[in-house]
Amino acid sequence: MQLEIRPDPEEVGRARKWARSRLAGLGIAADEPLAETLILLVSELVTNAVVHTGRPALLRLSLPRGAAPPASAGAEQVASVTVRLEVADASSRAPVPRCAGRDATGGRGLALVDCLADRWGWSPEGAGKSIWCELDRCSQPREGAAPAYGVQPTPYEDLLFEAF
């Protein structure tokens, strides 16, 4: 599943709405922690693509490890379901960390991705790049997972990330 994103900050809201509808179609309720986290990650990655490249982007959402969970399945039965989010843009510049002050109002998008996603990374794609992250749907928090950004120290705590 994919959505073309225009280089306009208002597209972030449209991307969130699109992702919510796709998750619902996969049997993932809007109030599940997985859905709430994924929507935040959509916001961060689409914002980075729109703001830092000024070019169109492509949002992809997929379940790489099997089919969609049955609508009647409980959390214990779908623990292995992984949702993958990708945002591809036309810039070949890699995500670059930089230091941010405590009062900075932006620039923490990839730090949030690092803290909230089970896995993430980026790779060249055509003339540009794709930044991706994966979230596992499980009934128990993963071992070592921080309850919220900033609660436990991470290697990225004092860095500011910017994707170009």
Measured between the Cα atoms of the first and last residue, the distance is 24 Å
Share of helix, binned: 25-40%
Please give the largest β-sheet: 5 strands, antiparallel
Low-confidence stretches: 73-79, 146-153, 156-164
- Apparent shape: globular
The spatial strand order of the largest sheet comes to 1-2-3-6-5
Helical segment tally? 3
Rg computed from alpha carbons, rounded to a whole number of angstroms = 16 Å
Describe it.
- By secondary structure, this protein is of the alpha+beta class.
- 27% of the residues lie in helices and 26% in strands.
- The protein contains 3 helices and 7 strands, in the order βααβββαβββ.
- It has helices spanning 11-25, 33-53, 109-116; strands at 2-5, 57-62, 82-89, 96-99, 119-125, 128-136, 159-162.
- It has a 5-stranded antiparallel β-sheet, covered by helices on one side. A two-stranded antiparallel sheet has the order 4-7.
- Helix 1 packs antiparallel against helix 2 (33-53) and helix 2 packs antiparallel against helix 3 (109-116).
- The radius of gyration is 16 Å and the shape is globular.
- The relative contact order is 0.19.
- Residues 73-79, 146-153 and 156-164 have low confidence and may be disordered.
